[in-house]
Design brief:
CATH topology: Rossmann fold
Distance between the termini: 23 Å
Number of domains: 1
Number of strands: 5
Order of helices and strands: EHHEHHHEHEEH
CATH architecture: 3-Layer(aba) Sandwich
Strand content: 5-15%
CATH class: Alpha Beta
Structural class: alpha/beta
Low-confidence stretches: none
Strand order of the largest sheet: 3-2-1-4-5
Length: about 140
Amino acid sequence: MSVSIIIDTCVLISALRSNRGASFKLLSLIDSNKFEFYLSVALVLEYEAVAKRSSQKLGLTDSDIEELIDYLCAVGKSRQVHFLWRPSLKDPSDDFILELAVESECDYIVTHNIRDFTETEKFQVKAITPQKFLNIIGAIS
């Protein structure tokens, strides 16, 4: 069985900032069949809003961001969340990510904000950094 993940928005933005780190490596592997990547409408809208807000600093146009979002939607597996468990996390604005992870039965939430997801393990979901996830799937060179 494949490993399944949710990619937190901070990892996406980190990948767009630099092509040298683990976040970029993770994004470059998104269609490699090394893992399954899940998303929801709420997560896609957050990706788009945060990326567009940062577009000038990232050196990207709105069109570049829309193309990336379209690509992520094409390669990701979409899920609808039919339940809410709020609040469950320290930062209530992250609850929708946990709900998506539970709905899609994901193994990991890949994030740089591990402390924001300390309550996920009671739902059998582990919060993990991009670097640690790449180690797990054997993608560190």
